[in-house]
Write a structure and sequence with these properties.
The chain has seven helices and no strands. The chain is mostly helical. The protein is rod-shaped and about 130 Å long. The protein starts with a helix and ends with a helix. The relative contact order is 0.05.
């Protein structure tokens, strides 16, 4: 067993630091052996220096103050994180609103419906007999695709 450990055990049974410092290793071992022979249990869980209630209360006060500050800092951090998340959510909503407004413009609707009709509409020929079948086909496609009335004339233009 090391000298420091023997000194620690002696301090736990009641020897003061000044007394222990004056002992050499052999004296410390002898004192510890006498304590063990007498049946005095050297409990390693006892405090080395008995503390007064005032010191303990002051220590607890400082610990509680530290915990309070730590809690306040954590709450401030969580508040900042919440503000950042709210700002991100607002930005995302704004982006969605702008995208929706852009998609609902007449130009985008015309493009969307012309893409839907592309490849399904036959070309209008210059033969007057085929013009009637062309408009019948276009009308049936307009109904199937559900094209608004204000866009029909624009989509028929070549």
């Amino acid at each position: 067993m090391s000298t420091a450990r023997i000194q620690l055990k002696l301090s736990r049974v009641g020897y003061t630091d000044e007394q222990i410092e004056s002992f050499d290793r052999q004296t410390c071992m002898t004192k510890l052996a006498k304590l063990i022979v007498r049946g005095i249990k050297v409990d390693e869980t006892q405090a080395t220096v008995p503390q007064s209630p005032i010191v303990y209360i002051e220590f607890e006060r400082e610990r509680l103050e530290w915990e309070r500050q730590k809690f306040a800092e954590e709450m401030a951090l969580k508040g900042h994180e919440l503000e950042i998340k709210e700002a991100e959510l607002k930005l995302q909503k704004d982006k969605m609103k702008i995208k929706e407004e852009f998609e609902n413009t007449p130009a985008m609707k015309v493009k969307q419906f012309s893409d839907a009709l592309k490849g399904t509409v036959i070309k209008m020929s210059s033969d007057p007999i085929e013009i009637a079948s062309f408009f019948d086909q276009i009308d049936s496609l307009f109904v199937k695709v559900d094209i608004p009335a204000d866009l029909k004339a624009t989509l028929v233009k070549p």
